[in-house]
């Protein structure tokens, strides 16, 4: 009997010692909560610690003192928060709408009190701008939360920066690439948006921007294009930016066809070492009201192309729009084409895009559109064209009856290569013969050619602005003055209004004086 009593006493002593240790831990936690303004939660910890520390007078005294102090602070904080908690919801929402998108101020405001948190979380207009920064450690979880909170109106802005801060990887999270096992951070983000979007919700985005410091991989390219083909992803402007080459067949073949899936699309820009910018007329604009038989190429209004490496593939993508109708057909479409694809399953994602591209009965993607006997590439409503590099294959097959502004530039190395230079000159001459009558603005400031046979007033009768600022091969006596004189003798030709000359253009003082007498504005630098 005495041994049993002794064991019970030892057990009680050990239990009391453990309770004192737990009470000390609660006290330490309460002091940490007090530093972050969580006095109410700290009070609950201290109240639990009081019952555990009755066997240790020293710990109990510390807990009681801390409890009284925290209760006073909790009462003061409650009085301070009461005016904010009573603020009407509509006033609070109006204030929060002034917060800069992408900042952490909205999350900080939601932590002021329960009333504010409830009002902010239940206001979908406050969560429409999803901006993923390089410092976000779990960007896919952030994307899912914003999509859920912005329902039922959907997102307005989607800005994804997945660049890695390589010198400070210990500070900023590393962005995984898709080179190893097919998965990447970008795929996780897009898949999270796919999975969190409720049925019936459409993300009418003003802007979808993606930025990366590394070269694009085919895996991520596939997922981006598949994401943009979603019927509930409707961006008005798309920007894909990188510091490296952005090249893949999907960009050149799918982007021109996107207006058939997204009637709101007005701009698509990819920018790396090569730059391409498509400008479309959205269907809600008066200029885009066409019949169902009008090809997709009629939606293209402006085109900027700089230093692309696959010119033939780019021309083929434009050619697909010229023989495709805006109405998407069902031939070749699969019921699985729009299903979300988990990260890493690139073959399934690419197969879905292939099935969607086969949805038009009129598109033959196996045709060689660059051959000499191929039908012309007709862009009926294109008004502005800017191209640099070896662009002659595109001009050789193009017809642009509404073109008003033409900007062309070539690398200086073209002067030393007889074959490409001659091909470019011949393509320009044929192109101006077909489309020159509508051109009003011509910019050849950086067009490095040996001859300029296309600079004839009969080919450019309506030219009003001529820019040759940095072109040392265009001389006043050989090209400019004869062009102005010929236009003056032709009663049907328009007068040249603006002539932009630079220090590289060769002219004499009497020649510049003559040009100023016959041209409204002559700019010299």
Number of separate structural domains: 3
Per DSSP, the total helix count is: 16
For the biggest sheet, the summary is: 13 strands, mixed
**What is the strand tally?**
15
Structure class: alpha/beta
**Share of helix, binned:** 40-55%
- How far from one another are the termini? 112 Å
Shape: elongated
Low-confidence stretches: 8-16
Query: What is the rounded Rg?
Result: 34 Å
Overall average pLDDT: 78
Fraction of residues in β-strands: 5-15%
Neighbour order of strands in the largest sheet? 1-2-3-4-5-6-7-9-11-12-13-14-15
Condensed summary:
This protein has 525 residues and is α/β, with parallel strands linked by helices. The chain has helices at residues 2-35, 39-52, 57-85, 89-96, 105-109, 114-121, 139-150, 185-196, 218-228, 249-254, 311-322, 346-357, 392-397, 418-435, 476-489, 509-518; strands at residues 129-132, 157-161, 207-212, 237-242, 267-271, 275-280, 300-306, 377-378, 384-388, 398-399, 405-409, 441-446, 465-468, 498-501, 521-523. The chain is built from 16 helices and 15 strands.
Structure description:
The chain has three domains: 2-85, no CATH class; 128-364, no CATH class; 383-525. The longest helix is centred in the N-terminal third of the chain and has 34 residues, at 2-35. The chain contains 16 helices and 15 strands. 40% of the residues lie in helices and 13% in strands. Residues 8-16 have low confidence and may be disordered. It is an alpha/beta fold and 525 residues long. Helix 1 packs parallel to helix 3 (57-85), helix 2 runs antiparallel to helix 3 and helix 8 runs parallel beside helix 9. The strands form two sheets. The chain has a 13-stranded mixed β-sheet with strand order 1-2-3-4-5-6-7-9-11-12-13-14-15, with helices on one face. It comes from Heterobasidion irregulare (strain TC 32-1). Pfam families: F-box-like (PF12937). Residues 87-129 form the F-box domain.
């Amino acid at each position: 009997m005495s041994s049993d009593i002794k064991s019970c006493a030892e057990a009680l002593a050990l239990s009391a010692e453990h309770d004192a240790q737990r009470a000390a831990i609660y006290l330490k936690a309460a002091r940490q909560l007090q530093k972050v303004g969580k006095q109410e939660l700290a009070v609950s910890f201290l109240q639990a610690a009081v019952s555990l520390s009755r066997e240790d007078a020293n710990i109990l005294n510390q807990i009681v003192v801390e409890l009284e102090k925290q209760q006073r602070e909790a009462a003061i904080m409650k009085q301070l928060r009461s005016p904010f908690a009573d603020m009407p919801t509509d006033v609070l929402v109006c204030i929060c709408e002034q917060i800069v998108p992408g900042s952490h101020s909205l999350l900080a405001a939601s932590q002021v009190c329960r009333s504010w948190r409830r009002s902010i979380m239940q206001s979908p207009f406050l969560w429409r701008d999803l901006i993923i920064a390089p410092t976000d450690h779990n960007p896919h979880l952030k994307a899912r939360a914003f999509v859920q909170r912005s329902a039922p109106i959907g997102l307005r802005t989607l800005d994804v920066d997945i660049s890695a801060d390589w010198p400070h990887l210990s500070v900023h999270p590393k962005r995984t690439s898709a080179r190893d096992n097919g998965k990447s951070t970008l795929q996780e983000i897009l898949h999270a948006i796919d999975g969190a979007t409720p049925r019936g919700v459409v993300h009418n985005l003003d802007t979808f921007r993606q930025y990366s410091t590394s070269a694009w991989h085919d895996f991520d390219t596939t997922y981006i294009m598949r994401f943009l083909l979603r019927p509930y992803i409707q961006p008005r402007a798309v920007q894909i930016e990188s510091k490296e080459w952005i090249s893949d067949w999907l960009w050149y073949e799918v982007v021109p066809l996107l207006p058939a899936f997204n009637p709101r699309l007005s701009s698509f820009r990819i920018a790396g070492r090569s730059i391409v910018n498509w400008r479309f007329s959205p269907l809600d604009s008066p200029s885009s009201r066409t019949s169902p038989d009008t090809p997709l190429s009629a939606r293209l209004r402006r085109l900027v192309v700089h230093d692309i490496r696959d010119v033939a593939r780019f021309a083929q993508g434009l050619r697909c729009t010229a023989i495709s109708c805006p109405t998407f057909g069902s031939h070749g479409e699969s019921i699985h084409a729009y299903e979300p694809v988990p990260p890493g399953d690139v073959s399934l994602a690419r197969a879905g895009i292939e099935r969607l591209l086969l949805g038009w009965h009129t598109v033959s993607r196996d045709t060689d559109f660059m051959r000499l006997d191929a039908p012309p590439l007709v862009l009926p409503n294109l008004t502005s064209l800017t191209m640099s590099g070896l662009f002659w294959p595109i001009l050789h097959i193009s017809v642009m009856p509404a073109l008003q502004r033409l900007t062309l530039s070539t690398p200086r190395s073209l002067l030393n290569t007889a074959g490409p230079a001659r091909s470019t000159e011949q393509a320009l001459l044929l192109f101006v013969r077909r489309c020159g009558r509508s051109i009003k603005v011509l910019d050849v400031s950086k067009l490095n050619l040996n001859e300029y046979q296309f600079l004839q007033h009969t080919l450019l009768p309506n030219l009003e602005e001529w820019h040759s600022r940095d072109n040392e091969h265009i001389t006043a006596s050989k090209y400019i003055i004869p062009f102005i004189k010929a236009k003056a003798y032709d009663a049907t030709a328009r007068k040249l209004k603006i002539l932009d000359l630079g220090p590289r253009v060769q002219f004499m003082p009497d020649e510049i004086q003559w040009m100023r007498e016959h041209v409204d504005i002559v700019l010299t630098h």
